[in-house]
Amino acid sequence: MAITTQQLIQWKQQGRSIVALTAWDYAIAQLIDAAGVDLILVGDSMAVVLGYDTTLPITLDEMIYHAKSVRRGVKRALVVVDLPFLTYQESLQQAMHSAGRVLKETGAQAVKLEGGYPAIAETIARLVQAGIPVMGHVGLTPQSVHQLGLRQQGKTQEASERILLEAIALEQAGVFSIVLEHIPADLAMQITQKLSIPTIGIGAGTHCDGQVLVTSDVIGLAEKHPPFAKVYTNLRETITKAVQDYAVEVRDRKFP
Ligand code: KIV
Ligand code: NA
């Protein structure tokens, strides 16, 4: 049975924690879906596995190309696709066009937009009215890296209040869930208690309604990872060893 946005909201009410990970192609999506992940995000953080330093260069066409591949691998999880930098901020029309393309061309069920400032909340409200499920994202928003850096957000009283108000505005705009990235755990707890939609944390402590990590960090494929990521296995080592063993055997004419 495919997971719906309503199911995630129900799980919050029941206190069942939501498991989310990112994916960038069929192979990874198929594996993590079969392993029981509830929500699969085609995050613009795939910039990392494509060799970019930030998420800014990714285009909507690239996101759609990868999301189609991911979608083919998923049977159960809810698939959410990031709208990349400057494909939704320009105007409502631009946002509607971008989100519409993602849903129509990829078969994903929802899109994610960064930010909680008034213009974004308004855009999101209109997308939701048009029947497009939207996930919010506040705290550290990597598309604003040149303004925010990659530092933890919401550390002062003022910043913390602003993030709480943004989260409330996004819930009112109709998002079905919100990512809370790299904010203090007590702020994430406060937001989680205040909202009736699920919060999905990344570097936001244990009190969120679910957790998301970037899969290339979790499996040790990324060259570097943020301090809050947990590396569960080291695929860089595994792959390097396999390739070196193969190279030795070919050169020694032991394989085939
Ligand atoms: O792109 C991404 O991977 C994300 C997650 C960090 C939430 O937006
Ligand atoms: Na993202």
What does this structure look like?
This protein has one domain: TIM Barrel (Alpha-Beta Barrel). Strands 1-2-3-4-5-6-7-8 form an eight-stranded parallel barrel, surrounded by seven helices. The chain has helices at 5-14, 26-34, 60-73, 92-106, 118-129, 145-148, 157-173, 185-194, 215-218, 235-251, and strands at residues 18-22, 39-42, 78-82, 110-112, 134-139, 177-181, 199-202, 210-213. It is built from ten helices and eight strands. Helix 4 links the parallel strand 3 (78-82) and strand 4 (110-112). Helix 2 (26-34) packs across helix 3 (60-73). The longest helix has 17 residues, at 157-173. With 256 residues, it is α/β, with parallel strands linked by helices.
Give the SSE map.
Elements: H1 5-14, E1 18-22, H2 26-34, E2 39-42, H3 60-73, E3 78-82, H4 92-106, E4 110-112, H5 118-129, E5 134-139, H6 145-148, H7 157-173, E6 177-181, H8 185-194, E7 199-202, E8 210-213, H9 215-218, H10 235-251
Parallel strand pairs: 1-2, 1-8, 2-3, 3-4, 4-5, 5-6, 6-7, 7-8
The protein binds 3-methyl-2-oxobutanoic acid (KIV) and sodium ion.
Could you give the count of β-strands? Answer: 8
Q: How would a textbook summarize the main sheet?
A: 8 strands, parallel, barrel
Average residue-wise pLDDT: 98
The first-level CATH class is given as: Alpha Beta
The total domain count is 1
Any idea what the CATH superfamily is called?
A: Phosphoenolpyruvate-binding domains
CATH fold-level name: TIM Barrel
Enzyme class: transferase
Family: Belongs to the PanB family.
Subcellular location: Cytoplasm
Binding site for Mg(2+): 44, 82, 114
